Amino acid sequence: MQGHAGRRPLQVLTVPEADTRRDERDGGEIAPAPVLELKGISKHFGAVEALSEVDFEVYPAEVVALAGDNGAGKSTLLKVIAGTHPPDAGIIRFDGAEVVINSPRHATQLGIETVYQDLALCDNLDVVANMFLGRETVSAPAALCRLSELDMERRALDVLRQLNVTTIKSVRSPVATLSGGQRQSVAISRAVMWNSKIVLLDEPTAALGVAQTFQVRELIKRLRTRGLGVVLISHNLHDVFEVADRIIVLRLGRRVATFKRDEATPDDVVASITGARRG
Amino acid sequence: MEPGSELSASKQAIKALERGPSFAPAMLFRAARMRISSGELGALPVVFGLALIWTYFELQDTHFLTARNLSNLVLQISVSGTIAIGVVLVLLLGEIDLSVGSVAGATAAVLGVLTVDDNWPWWAGILAMIAVGALIGALQGVWFAVLRVPSFVVTLAGLLVWLGVQLHVLGDAGTLNVFDARITAIASTFLPDAWGWGLAAVAVIGYAGSRLVEDTQRRRAEMSARSLPILFVQTATIAALLLGAVGVLNCAYGVPTAGVLLFALVAFFDWLVRRTTFGRHIYAVGGYAEAARRAGISVIRIRICVFALAGTLAAVGGLISTARLQAASTQTGGGTLLLESIAAAVIGGASLFGGRGSVWAALLGALVIGSVSNGLDLVGQPADVKYMVEGAILLLAVTIDAYSRRRLAVTGR
Fold first, then answer.
1. Residue A26 counted as domain residue
2. In terms of CA atoms, which chain B residue is nearest residue A128?
3. Helices (H), chain A
């Protein structure tokens, strides 16, 4: 069960090359091209229109927050990107090339990793086992499927060190022994260790205390420094303003506003979430 | 138990040990106490319970701890112990298999009919019965994993169906005497003394060697590794246990072949679940199936494979049982065999809640159940007392499991 052909765990820190195409929205400034771009995405569930003609883009080394009320379509959009819900209409470009993402496996093969709200960790397994779950390294001869614990432990330690996750005392203790923030850190570290380009985070701080929320925010900022595109769903506007570069607001399945973090106030965002004002 | 958990639990001990080997016993003791108070009990309560049971019966009846009786005990637990390995695997998934007794009986009937009535050679009969066991297990696995019928119900239905198949295959006679010496040899032969010593030595050296290689690799990679004194203490303990067992059994008739078979199966399946991706995925599915599925593990495949293994091991249990009684009858696999096998797995420490436990639980638990049954027979207690005591021990084991689970939750685990 090695799967994911061609994707080796991250060894060296890689930063995507900047594409020097002109980006019209920025009025002629030199800007990199989006690593992921969605155009005119629509998704219906029966008669319910969850998303209608939504455009979306995330750039390398950028954190984009998806804001919106319950039922605005944030989760659906996330699932479209993650491959769980292929869209009914619209196109997806990844690294400039048009792609079809119709299964979670497709998404991970492209380099899109999702950290679900429940983190999808096995409590009974240790940190290393969880980080390599489903993609275990085996020692030769491969036919025996013998786990190469030493290799896995070393790489897990490397990634945790690179991401500056220092609170985890032992990578050999079961995940059940970790705090909420540590568990979130493990889930996020797992998502970035496979040369991924985009990480989708669904409510990463929803269940966390103050100190742990801080830990996770710092971790998200570090993902940006590594050149990853991060898509963040959060109800916590404080989080959003703390880490996001851009905030995209969805309402009733449509994209109604886009804010740059430095040019907006929480009140502006709330107003466009509730529909009190068109952004 | 996960390979690393001992590591983390005795981490402090390791650190202290680097200061000097003289701390070893005290530090090991402290590590053990830490594990108990934090809810990571491991095999300790079972070993303690076993010691208690053996002491009790030795005080009651001087014949309990004799070489001859212990040799007999090994033979008695070989059937339920083998079947319990399969039950442990299923429990690791967080499921249950109630059909193992009937599967043992049905496959024994297949072996009897093929080798006695149809004059198949012994090896073909054994291969056929193992294949039938695997198929039955796989079928139940498909029913559970694909059709999503709870395993409790699928295997409860299996319990009845395969019992019916057993009676049908045996027909009117009801009992087939299996006298083929190559089949009965499994439960009636004993290793020559030298072989027993040799096998034990190989096992100890193999254990110490593989651990030494592993630790050396870890140290070379500059990662935390058990210190030599700890490795030494652990190896010495295992050597004492194994060589002691062989020594005692050699005083009677030698090590029973069925005992070697049971030990080898336990060791193999322990390796399979702890050291291979397949085993890792079993724990993952038992821990949180949805996470395993999202990680790209085929949950359905793992579930079917594990139920097929449980069926296979039940067939091996049926084989040993046939060899012991020199017959395949309507009674084979019946009586309390199913309950004893499940009780053995649970008493040995495999959690009913899935994802936690070791294959050694099968051996330890079978020893506990077997000792109680054997001991009560020796002191002349009737079946009523036997069942009540065995039931009480099972309840105690599950209570400890539930308690340690709660402790894990309390200590933030």
1. no
2. B4
3. 74-82, 104-110, 127-131, 149-162, 180-192, 210-225, 237-243, 266-274
Residue A212, min C-alpha distance to chain B (Å): 15
Position B59 in a domain: yes
> Closest approach of chain B CAs to the CA of A117, in angstroms?
12
* Three-state secondary-structure class, residue A29: coil
Question: Is A127 within 8 Å of A142 (Cβ atoms)?
Answer: no
B116-146 residue pLDDT tens: 999 999 999 999 999 999 999 999 999 999 9
**Domain membership flag for residue A171:** yes
Question: Which of helix, strand or coil describes residue A45?
Answer: strand
Q: Which of A122, A127, A136 to mutate to test the interface with B (most CBs of B within 10 A)?
A: A122
- Contact flag A122-B355 (C-beta cutoff 8 Å): yes
Number of domains in chain A: 1
The count of domains in chain B is 1
Which amino acid is located at B5 in the chain? S
Q: Please give the ipTM for the structure prediction.
A: 0.85
Range of the domain at B98: 5-16+42-189+256-410
Q: Which of A3, A147, A179 sits opposite B276 (nearest CB)?
A: A147
Residue B244 maps to a domain:
no
CB pairs under 8 A between A and B: 110
> Is B239 inside any structural domain?
no
pLDDT tens series, chain B, 413 aa: 344 444 444 444 444 444 444 445 565 666 665 555 554 556 778 888 899 999 999 998 678 999 999 999 999 999 999 999 999 999 999 999 999 999 999 999 999 999 999 999 999 999 999 999 999 999 999 999 999 999 999 999 999 999 999 999 999 878 999 999 999 999 999 999 999 999 999 999 999 999 999 888 888 888 877 788 888 998 999 999 999 999 999 999 999 999 999 999 999 999 999 999 999 999 999 999 999 998 889 999 999 999 999 999 999 999 999 999 999 999 999 888 999 999 999 999 898 889 999 999 999 999 999 999 999 999 888 889 988 998 898 898 888 878 877 776 665 44
A179 CB neighbours in chain B (<8 A) are 412
Residue B53 tokens read as 């049971």
Whether A250 contacts A68, CB under 8 Å: yes
- Minimum CA–CA partner of B7 in chain A: A172
pLDDT in the model for residue B380: 87
Distance from CA of A45 to the nearest CA of B (A): 22
A135 contacts B296? CB cut-off 8 A: yes
Inside any domain, residue A45: yes
Q: What is the CATH number of the domain that holds B69?
A: 1.10.3470
Beta-carbon separation of B296 and A121 below 8 A:
no
CATH number of the domain within which A146 lies = 3.40.50.300
- CB distance B413–A177 less than 8 Å? yes
Domain range holding A268?
32-274
In this complex, the residue of B11, B286, B288 whose CB is nearest that of residue A170 is B11
- Chain B positions touching chain A (beta carbons under 8 Å): 2-5, 7-8, 11, 214, 217-218, 221, 223, 275-278, 280-281, 283-284, 286-288, 290-292, 294-298, 355-356, 408, 411-413
B397 in a structural domain: yes
With the C-alpha atoms ordered A257, A258, A264, A269, is the resulting torsion angle positive or negative? positive
Long-range contacts of A272-279 (CB under 8 A, 24+ apart): A273/A67, A273/A68, A273/A69, A273/A72, A273/A249, A274/A69, A275/A251, A279/A249
CB A186 within 8 A of CB A131: yes
Contact at CB, A136 and B8, closer than 8 angstroms = no
Contact A145 B278 (CB under 8 A): yes
d(CA B101, CA B201): 34
